[in-house]
């Protein structure tokens, strides 16, 4: 028997808290974000969405492209730094990563990880095909990840790893959906080296940061066994190959500067 829901939901939390989810948007405290001299100022954390940006920038460096230097600052989401006024000015949604391009006038903010990938790919004409077929297929799989990822993170990951109770219904629901998504990728990669064919693109970066890391058991403890990820042999091949790329390795090993004195 479940509790009866009220006609109108009300929140009984503490609105004065600096961290934690609340049903309202906007900044909760004054904050000045540090800025360095590099063209790009990146405010992020090493989460699946956060690493997309650092991997992308390091892959651009690996291609020998100039002008992709960046200063990297840690946004400690556990301490609510994403709700400070400085970060909210960059991203009203208070989610990492967020980036400032200082190489243009006026400086331009870019938020949402998929938007950052697309912005950098178009700005430097790299990691996205120029022809309409390749570009569209890249966009297909980039936006597929953007739409599908929340079922893995906010759905499966939350109820499998973080929820205070192990509830069978949501775990079963999101496990089924996660495995369906893994199967989609596995079937696709049976016919292609990368997601759009023989070319490595931002679609691979976006998807590997979630599904590749999940396949390599680097997201939620015990989830690889639970999901039987080794049965997705094509996905495993892709995940392992991308993990060996120098740009990917550096994108994972980057050092974050604090936004305030520790």
From TrEMBL:
Region (Disordered): 1-28
Superkingdom per UniProt: Bacteria
Pfam family, one: GST_C
Record's compositionally biased regions (Polar residues): 16-25
Sections of the chain in a coiled coil: none
InterPro entries noted in UniProt: Glutathione-S-Trfase_C-like, Glutathione-S-Trfase_C_sf, Glutathione_S-Trfase, Glutathione_S-Trfase_N, GST_C, Thioredoxin-like_sf
Domain spans labelled GST C-terminal: 131-262
Family in the record: Belongs to the GST superfamily.
Protein name as catalogued: Glutathione-dependent disulfide-bond oxidoreductase
Species of the source: Suicoccus acidiformans
Organism placement in taxonomy: Bacteria, Bacillati, Bacillota, Bacilli, Lactobacillales
